[in-house]
Each structure stands twice: as C-alpha cells, then as structure tokens.
Predict the 3D structure of the following.
Amino acid sequence: MRAISQDRLGGPEVLREVEVDRPEPGPTEVLVRVRAAGVNPTDWKYREYGGALGDPPFVLGWDVSGVVEEVGAGAALYKPGDEVFGMLRYPFSNGAYAEYVVAPTRTFARKPAELDHVRAGALPLAALTAWQALIDTARLTKGQRVLIHAAAGGVGHLAVQIAKTRGAHVIGTASAAKHDFLRGLGADELIDYRTTDFAEAVRDVDVVVDSMGGKYGMRSLRTLRPGGVIVSLVLSDVHSELVAEAGRLGVRSEDMLVEPDYAAMTAIAGLAARGELKVHVDTVLPLAQASKAHELGESNRTTGKIVLTN
C-alpha cells in the first residue's frame, strides 16, 4: 500500500511516498481504508524531532476517516463497508498517512452521514482534545467563564463550540483577522494577542485551555478565580513551577494528553450530526502532497484544519 514515510528527521522535505505492506487486523481490530487523514501541529513536531516515536522510519498521522475493509476475530461492532472515524492511540499508534490502518474497534465511531470524509477526518484528535480538556478534566458547567488560547486553531475553534454547547461564556485569544470567524462560532469576547496582554485584560475565569505552553501557563494563572483550573495541552519543562504557583494561588493545574475514547467520539459525532460542532477545513490536499501540508501548517497562516485525502 502507499504511505508517507521519512527516513530521517527534519523539515517537510523529508516526507516521501513509499510502498509498505498492508497491515492485517488481529482480534478485536478492524482494517480501515483511509479516505481522509487530518494534519495536526503534533505531526510536524514528531517529523522534526522524533520524540516518543524514536528514530525513523515511521508513518505520521493520527486522524482517520474511512471505510471498514476487514474485521478481526471478535470485532463485532462494525462490518465491512461501515464508514467510521477516530483517532489512533496517541502517540504510539501513528500511521494515518497511508492507504490503510489497523486499530482496535473502539478507536472508531460511526461517521455521521451529515459529514463527508474530509470533515470527519479533520475532527478526531482536535475534537477529542477539546472535549477531554473541557468536559473530563476541567468538568465545565453551565455559566462558567472559559479562556481559550489560540482559539482559531484546530483545537481552539472546536473548544469554543464545545464550551458553548455547555452554556459557558467563552473568551478567546486570536489575531484580529480571525475575530469575525470566532464570533460566528459563538465566542463571547475576543482578545487580539498582538496588541493586548490577555493577563491584564481577563479576570475571574473558571477554566483556561492552554495549547501554547511556555510562559502562557504562568501568565494565565493570573486570570483564574480561586478554585479555577488551567488545562495545559503542551507538556512543559516548567510544569513543577506551574503546579507550585497554582497551589499558592488556590487554583488547579492539569497537564493532559489526548486519548482514544469511543464514548467521547460518539458524543462528538452527535454534535456534528446536529450541526452544533462544525470543523473548519482550511486546505485539502492529496496524500502525496503531505510535505506541502506541513509547510502550510507550519506557516501559522491557516485557520482550522488541513486534511490529506486518498
């Protein structure tokens, strides 16, 4: 089968199309023909640094939308021909930049008929991250105030919408050019991070979702009311200092990595089917142009998601 691999770490130019063996589903697994694979910032970070994936060669990608091709023994949830979408186990079960993937059955949920494969392929990792940060970790409730950094990004624009479905008041940071887009998604207040210091402009929030890392975490603590929580989506080398300062201020600090979650994927599918969660797809490219997708993503000029198609 075709896949996009790399034999060394580096820039987008290291990505190349190769032929590899098609995987076979084991017990309780399904083989999925990939129709669309979402591209996420974590993809180019692993491409450049390897991280938990170690040394190349490896095939990147965690977002999948496609069609069940084969089922393994005991995999009763789906049949060949079923349309599904989901996130491969992050970070160790990468491989979505390919014609086929194998994963445990409950990695996937049924793709809503209302979504095409492109939009379904754009959703899983970003939507699960937003859901698990807001619903599972922060335990968001109606009427709470939420600050979402990089609100126009892949995770951010979905977090805005998920928070609104829970009745929250949403404050987002983004460049001024993206404010109209975010207002259209329901954001209540917007801050242009280029001209305004959010740490001075925002107070008394219950939840901060931080996908920026670095100094953003420490500065965000000042915006929280007592008992509030910051959920950091970027594992940071200042984690211990952040936790200590959060404790001193009477707030909570949580680091979070996204996990496959059948129940959450099913809930996300329901929101998308009802039109309550809309993923914005900035660019669609064929699988063979994965290097171009990475170039676009790293430019920081895109809004929402980039998707590769087979």
Remarks:
- The CA atoms of residues 24 and 144 lie 47 Å apart.
- The mean pLDDT is 96.
- DSSP finds ten helices and 16 strands in the chain.
- The first helix runs from residue 41 to 49.
